[in-house]
Amino acid sequence: MNVLVTGSYGRCGTAIIDHLDDDPGYEFTYLNRSDRPADHRYGGFDTHVADIADYDAIRPAFDGQDAVVHLAAYPYTDGEWEDVFEPNVVGMYNALEAARAAEVETFVFASTNHVMGMYEEEHAPELYEPDYDLRLDTTDPVRPDSCYGATKSFGEDLGRYYAERYAYPRRFYALRICSVLPPEIDHPYGRAERRVAEGEIDRGSDAYERSVARTKATWHSRRDFAHLVDRCLADDSVEFDVFNGVSDNDRRWFSIRNARDRLGYDPVDNGEQWDEPPADPTP
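The structure assignment produced for this chain is given below.
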């Protein structure tokens, strides 16, 4: 299967590289705003350099692809409209238009948990505790917490429109991704330890413990994320659906039942498997 990955050198794209690039069933092409030098950890891959907001620049990369994993976006909840509009709105439209024109069958879209972020705003920090009684299904009403979250909700809706209105893409998978971390801090203590290393908080402080508790709930390990993408690429039954992207964490407030039942998603990681950071916690 020929697969194009947009926004390929961010946290999610590099997780795909780490866990799927060597799979003989896939031939990946990567699309990114910039390439990496050959001696970089993620250098030397087949990369189409273009900005997702420039349709003419990205369009050739879609030819000959069986699937697109669309990750390119402005990814921060503190972004204003001018930050998110081109990469997340125009870029989403461009990616779908290019997929339609190139007759790409499968479109996997990196949506976000922030499509549902106001639930967290309402229930945190108690929400981060293991026995808190909230479990969000993908059929629950969307409640974006930011311009970023709202653009991802738009992306889900636009994807549904394309899947139901046009011949291509034939299948659309929206993944409401939770916390995928860089490889060097891919564990529930990663964010808190990075904040310690940057002098922002102290280890063992209330802020540290809250960060760990949240990440134990939202962690989507890099291998579980890549596995979910793989399950989407292997599927041929979905026209449009939404799936929560999170590991099998005891504390998670996002249900993964739909991903299990429809895609055969079988995550192996759980935030509760960790009760302390690695021996060398410095990122």
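Interim note for the steering committee: The first helix runs from residue 11 to 20. The mean pLDDT is 96.
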